[in-house]
Amino acid sequence: MNAIISAVELMDASASGQPPVLLDVRYQLGGPPGRPEYEAGHIPGAVYVDLEGELAGPAGKEGRHPLPDLAVFGAAMRAAGVGSGGDVVVYDGGQGWAAARAWWMLRWAGHPSVRVLDGGLAAWRARGGPVTDERTAVREGDFVPAPGALPLLDADGAAALARRGLLLDARAGERYRGEVEPIDAVAGHIPGAVSAPTAENVAADGRLRPAAELAARFTALGAVEGTEVGVYCGSGVSAAQELLALAVAGVPAALYVGSWSEWSSIRIRPVLWLGGPAAWEGRAAGAIAARCRCGGDVVPGARVSFRGGGEESIRIRPVLWLGGPAAWEGRAAGAIAARCRCGGDMVPGARIFFRRDGEEPPWRGPAVPSRPRVRSSGRAPARARCRRRPRAGPGA
């Protein structure tokens, strides 16, 4: 079954003898709940479902939108009229994120027939579809969640998949690059992940691009035959839209529900890419890959070795060795930050090691190292510096 349904197809289905169950999942990140909008006008027969309270659990160590308690989710779906069989159609205001989260939750929980209204309520209105503010009479359904029908990733699974397959980051490109982080405490991305913003899945009218275009896009990103694919975002909502686009393109993929909001809060997770297929596992050596914003080269040939905390490594976190205590930011793991001497952000040549919570780093050397070096495994220390390039002129 196709994962999406057009407004015209939904009109025909709603007029049939067996209309689908309609779920209105309007939601805006950081905005007010969608229920007032639903009550002001919704597709006839639709029932409102609250993303925050019914499609996600309370925010915490597992992220801002973790999986909900299955009993809560199942009760909410039954109250909305969802049965074990029959068709379900979900929609939101048009962005597609919330509707895709509902689609993924139901599919993951074992429902066989769920589709997303392509383009949401905006597409429905554009086709002249009616809206009403009348309360929908609901006949309670009998749906019982049976989780596991779709693949799911945790933090360890996401890290492993990024090494052996393709892990897509569905957030905006500037968040992936660490240039901004408007929500979570740490900027950056999961090592090895590939940027794939959800905005590039939709056309100007808000509907998903044609399947062939989506397939070409994901192929170019590395989703070729035989490659295992996973997706994450900020908190497991917009990534569901990426999964929907992948499904339309015929590419199966797994969701990392905790996403960046969980990853960036786990203290032993690296955020800056330290390179190499085993940069974290076993604390093996790996190449630093950091670029200065002044235009300097990627740190040339630098290597870093790791020392950990043995059996207690769960409590260790990274520290930059730049010759002074100011290098330690005291934030969550992977919040590794240093300043290039040109004023740009980079890792100009740091010895990175790990320490347990509460330990003082063994600072040595001058406050600002004149010849920054990195520890090498069995090799002479490699010099790493920002080689500043001339700035481009106006219009370049």
| Uncertain parts | 268-396
Strand percentage lies at: 5-15%
Please give the largest β-sheet.
5 strands, parallel
- Quickly count the helices: 11
Structural class computed from helices and strand pairing: alpha/beta
C-alpha geometry: globular
The number of E-state strands comes to: 16
C-alpha-based Rg, rounded: 24 Å
What's the number of domains? 3
- CATH homologous superfamily of the largest domain, by name? Rhodanese-like domain
SSE order? EHEHEHHEHEHEHEHEHEHEHEEEEEE
C-alpha termini separation: 49 Å
- Percent of residues in helical segments? 10-25%
Oligomeric form:
single chain
- The average pLDDT score comes to 74
Q: Any idea of the CATH class of the largest domain?
A: Alpha Beta
CATH topology of the largest domain: Oxidized Rhodanese, domain 1
User: What's the arrangement of strands in the largest beta sheet?
Assistant: 1-5-4-2-3
Q: Which architecture of the largest domain per CATH?
A: 3-Layer(aba) Sandwich
